[in-house]
Amino acid sequence: MNQExxxxxxxEAISAMHCPQTVDVVDAVMARISKTPSIVAVTNKKxxxxxxxxxxxxxxxxxxxxxxxxxxxxxxxxxxxxxxxNDVSAYIEDYTxxxxxxxxxxxxxxxxxxSTGENKEENVEAKAIEK
Amino acid sequence: xxxxxxxxxxVKAILEGDVxxxxxxxxxxxxxxxxxxxxxxxxxxxxxxxxQQVFVELYTSLPRFRFDSKLSTFIYSITVNxxxxxxxxxxxxxxxxxxxxxxxxxxxxxxxxxxxxxQARRLHDAIGQxxxxxxxxxxxxxxxxxxxxxxxxxxMVTLSKVESLIFRAKKNxxxxxxxxxxx
Lengths: 131, 183
What we know:
The complex is a heterodimer. By secondary structure, chain A is an all-alpha fold. Chain A has six helices and no strands. The termini of chain A are far apart. By secondary structure, chain B is mostly helical. The longest helix of chain B has 24 residues. The radius of gyration of chain B is 18 Å and the shape is elongated. The mean pLDDT of chain B is about 85. At the A-B interface, α1, α2 and α3 of A face α2, α3, α5, α6 and α8 of B.
């Protein structure tokens, strides 16, 4: 018997095989799947996991970008910040006491400490008027 | 028979919670799956029980089915896996109920009919003696005119493996029949 004829016979033999019984498993299957965990929950859980992953990834990207931009800005503006610090330092160092203090227009602490029994406030005022 | 669009609608509805729609899929495929189970396992397995297992497994696997292939391919893949696991627990040799064999078209004399029946019986016996993988590949090859690629997708093996399995299955079948004829 040549190969082609043999193949044909094999095909026919297998095609001729049919399950001797007619199966009807719909009710049995529906009863069994009612006892299995809900696949809706599985599908939602998967979606939730996917969203969690996407959110985490987006947060990481935002943080990295934010840090990168901040570092870049600081690097670019470094001389301005430094100059500002220097200016403030110089201003503080060069600050002079207003002339009013040297001209004794303002009461000194001695006026408060050495006054003798008299009304301290009146004394101070009187002395200020005298001057 | 369900069209691809019908299947997509039904699966979508099931995944959204309308579980009762699953009965339509079971009704459409139960007899086809039963036939495949019988061709793969002969009288060895309880066909009813295996078919139920197939559809329960299909239901739990629906969330990961993306319609990359046909739903029928997915169902057959599950069927092959379940049958092979069930057969692994038993002897690999299977037999077929003679009553399950369809009558061949008539138009032959009585002698020819008897001869044909005898040849068919020998073939069935020989098929039952093949290794599980070879028998699976050969059965799928004749089942619904699957291509080698379809068979590779169902069995989850490479195309070259399918070609090799079918070639060896046919070769071994011939050897078994010739040995029996000599006896």
